[in-house]
Amino acid sequence: MSHKGWIAWGLAACLSLGVGTSGAASLQVTVVDEQGRPVPDAVVFLDSVQASKAVRPMAQVDMAQQNKRFVPDVLLVTRGTPVAFPNRDTVRHHVYSFSPTKRFELKLYVGTPAQPVVFDQPGVAVLGCNIHDQMIAWVVVVDTPYRAQADADGRVVLDNVPPDAYQLRLWHQRLPVGASAQAQALSMTDKSLALRVVLRKLEAP
Question: Mind listing the pLDDT tens digit for each residue in 47-68?
Answer without folding.
Answer: 999 999 999 999 999 999 999 9
